Amino acid sequence: MKLLLIFAIASVSWAQAAITITRTCLPSVVKPGATLTCTDTMSGGNTSTTGPAGVQWQFTPSQAMGTPAATAGAAAIAAGKSVSSNSSGLILVSGINQNLIADGVLAVVTYQVPLSASCPGNSPCLVFNPSNAVGSTIGGGAIAVTINPTLAVSVSNFCDLNADGAVNSADVAIEVTAVLNGTAADRNGDTKTNVQDVVLIDVAAAGGACLATK
Ligand SMILES: [Ca+2]
Ligand SMILES: [Ca+2]
């Protein structure tokens, strides 16, 4: 009897357990105009109890990032679910079946980083703020969703040649080496690699604006 009671309590606690969604993005330092690929992974699900059968969540970027494109991740595909999304960043994982979703990648979301995006000092400043997160049991009941710590991505610029989030002498050295070695490293778009390109990196490394265009 005592064992049965313990089992019953354990079952109730499973039914009420929250699931967690964690977002990771690559690259961690992205350049304007490049593609940022974010992977949204679920943990804490249980295919022998509540699932979930469907999940929704939203990430709102802290600066304009255009309309994200979301595709189904391995865990969603395995459960026969598809992924829908809108321009606000709302992501919906659902499917015409009675399957429960196992832990794993629910969605892969890509953003085309606008040329206007930037982070002052190249410190991580692009944050994805979560909202609207909830899961559903097969009966339409709510499953709480926790979003793991908010991720911050750095938007670098065309003068951060080694993509370490800072523009300094290391980047200048890369450009100087390219000029000396005759390696293509055009920064002003004239198709030549020469002192003009070095100067653009020099100025940025000295604290000026990065005027490199590629
Ligand atoms: Ca750098
Ligand atoms: Ca050039």
Descriptive overview:
It is a single chain. The protein folds into two domains: 2-155, Sandwich (Immunoglobulin-like), CATH 2.60.40; 158-214, Type 1 dockerin domain, CATH 1.10.1330.10. It has helices at residues 2-16, 74-78, 169-181, 195-205; strands spanning 19-26, 29-30, 35-43, 54-61, 69-72, 82-85, 90-94, 104-112, 126-136, 142-143, 145-147, 152-155. By secondary structure, the chain is α+β, with helices and mostly antiparallel strands. α3 (169-181) packs antiparallel against α4 (195-205). A hairpin with a 4-residue loop joins β6 (82-85) and β7 (90-94). It contains four helices and twelve strands. The relative contact order is 0.18. Strands 2, 4, 6, 7, 9, 10 and 12 form a seven-stranded mixed beta sheet that branches. A five-stranded mixed beta sheet has the order 5-8-3-1-11. It binds calcium ion (2 copies). Residues 186-188, 190, 192-193, 196-197 line the site of one calcium ion.
